[in-house]
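Box 4.2: Ligand-aware structure prediction
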Amino acid sequence: LAEVTDYDLIVIGAGPGGYVAAIRAAQLGMKVACVEKRSTLGGTCLNVGCIPSKALLYASEQYEAVQTQFENLGVIVKDVQLDLAKMQAHKQSVIDANVAGVEFLLKKNKITWLKGTATITAPGHVSIDDTIVTARSILIATGSESVSLSGVEIDEKQVVTSTGALALEKVPEHLVVIGGGVIGIELGSVWHRLGAKVTIIEYFDRLLPGFDKEVSLTFAKILEKKGISLKLAHKVEKIEKEGSQLQLTITNTAGDKTEHLSADVVLVSVGRRPITHGLGLEALGVPLDDKGRIKVNSQFQTNIAGIYAIGDVITGPMLAHKAEEEGVAVAELLAGQKPHVNYDLIPSVVYTDPEIAMVGKTEEVLKADSIDYTIGKFPFSANGRARAMNKTDGFVKILADKRTNKVLGVHIIGPHCSEMIAEIVLAMNFGASAEDIALTCHAHPTLTESIKEAALGTQKRSIHL
Ligand code: FAD
């Protein structure tokens, strides 16, 4: 590598991993460029992921609440109508504002946006279309893309991934969602609230594998009560087009029952795979793991000095905030600092109604690891604020070490728990015991009092239960 390079750092990909790394590196005095092939910055998250899905989840939740919850509060609204084009325009305006915000931040930090597709031609050398640029360090933050089922062709109109499901121009009559993970459940909820019949097919015997089993079973009951059909322990054999309809053949995993479903839209949400193609990794000899993710060491370094990777393209949960933490860490490592990403404390959230939020270990993991624990549980039905809001479904469950009372995991299903979980992550980051949380004064009446009560519950001394 020549002594004088164009940049200290070239980041490939401007998603939450890449653009955050670029900003932190610029703050630390590096000369930084960020390559992005999409016409806007922000990656999957801002363009076709977290942000647009939350815009539609919020808007559709209001639409449903007006019809199903307002009357009980004494608010009579007549002639509720859906203007889907306007709802989609709201989503787009949120995307536009966010991606413009990232562009502003890159400019503010004097980061060069190199538009195009990057390939690493040699250590320190990146080609963007026909131009070669050089850098002391290269960070791969190319993210992930949806996978399909074998034999199922995605047209993003009728057979869609999350990207097509975020952009439907008409509410489907019957939407079949293949895959009961976070993305399938969130987008299934959106279209169900807007009037579609929704069936979720999941191969596993419960929704949201990876979340606490009790939470997932409670949530399945709530979804069914809302009218979403669940086909758990089922798999899709084939999808055939018949006129304007799609015919699905599904079997149970035991293999002794076959059923046929007719749908006008099918959402395939069976997972995402890292984007590593076209980066030149094979020629460089950068190894991938069995799931196609770039192998890195604890310093996010590949086997080649000066080439790093973060975010969805490496191991770990495919979450925006995980990618951001890693982005900051790489920039600080390059500046000679000693950052640390605590992988035990990355919260996971499902933005449905009720919401689900978790951090730390599940009961299933604690049992498998033979760790003795106590449970403190508090239902929202016993929380005054939740009652005032008519949002009493769900509970807070705190798992604490039996001997030390240290918090090991927290699982919440209930209103606004996407926000409430931050208190827990902070507490756990300081190594809190459940008693530390219980000794903390929580404002009344708030939903967070349920956290305090669950914390008291680990020592069997909840007040309001
Ligand atoms: P990405 O955001 O995927 O960004 C990578 C960028 O690299 C892309 O813009 C891509 O165009 C670019 N790129 C790829 N290859 C090249 C190349 N060779 N040259 C130039 N540019 C390239 N996560 C959450 O935490 N919360 C949520 O609520 C949430 N909701 C989601 C909802 C949906 C529908 C989806 C699909 C995902 C959701 N996620 C959510 C996941 C989240 O979007 C990802 O974890 C996150 O975007 C990963 O960030 P990243 O920086 O690693 O990659």
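In the box above, the bound molecule is flavin-adenine dinucleotide. Residues 12-18, 35-38, 43-45, 49-50, 53, 117-118, 141-144, 162, 183, 275, 278-279, 311-312, 318-321, 323 surround flavin-adenine dinucleotide (CB under 6 Å).
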